From TrEMBL:
Alphabetized NCBIfam families for the sequence: F420_MSMEG_4141
Record-linked InterPro entries: Bact_Lucif_Oxidored, Lucif-like_OxRdatse_MSMEG_4141, Luciferase-like_sf
GO cellular component, one term: cytosol
Name of protein: Putative F420-dependent oxidoreductase
Source organism: Umezawaea tangerina
Single GO MF descriptor: oxidoreductase activity, acting on paired donors, with incorporation or reduction of molecular oxygen
Amino acid sequence: MAVELGTFGVWSQAQLWVGAGDAAAELEQLGYRTLWLGGSPGGDLQAVSDVLAGTRELTVATGIVNVWSEPAERLSATYRRIEDEHPGRFLVGIGASHPEAVGEYVKPYDKLVSYLDELDVPQDRRILAALGPRVLKLGADRTAGAHPYLVTPEHTATAREVLGVGPVLAPEQHVVLETDPDAARALARQSIQLYLGLRNYTGNWLRLGFTEDDLADGGSDRLVDALVAWGSPEQVAIRLHAHLTAGADHVAVQVIAPQGGHDPEAFRELAAALF
């Protein structure tokens, strides 16, 4: 593809990176190759511009722009501007969010298709948020590939089968750097609470073999342990590599920090185990 993602990247909320070029530069120096900016960023994507301006080779990807709230025409214009300023370093990630968040959420697959028809961004410079097989296939056919969120290595293996050889597979992985099981699971469980009420995520977990009991009461230990990699940096690194073994090309690491926000020390510790 035209954009180099590298093996490991960082997933973080976009609003944290407006004017944060120095923090992004440290991630680049540590060895992380891509910064994924989440939280449905839109508009002029100022955080993307700021990160690119503050780094030399780091790729920036949106993870993801919501197709229901950001007009394709405006995103196309923003892409062209950023591409002119920083050639070859921006990957446009788009997705349909979830039905609970969008009042007009009807036939998301059709919305994705029409949005891709309107989006004036080269196929190899856009990637699709995808969980189920139909949207994964759309990502393979119409974009560079797929960016699944909050998934397991088992899902990665299934996604690779659907995508086939060639399309990019870049899953996101929640991470908690904590070795005490109770403390780690408490933080991990807190991080997935929102998604336990969103049927596109719960449906995906049920397809993977989890049960309604696993989804109840804040999530079972089995579900929490499967979705969130916790432990020492070395233990977490093993889980991240499991995605690569299962067929991922790149893994986007989201560190869940006790204090919230970006945790530079956690990424330093993890980098020592990864690179």
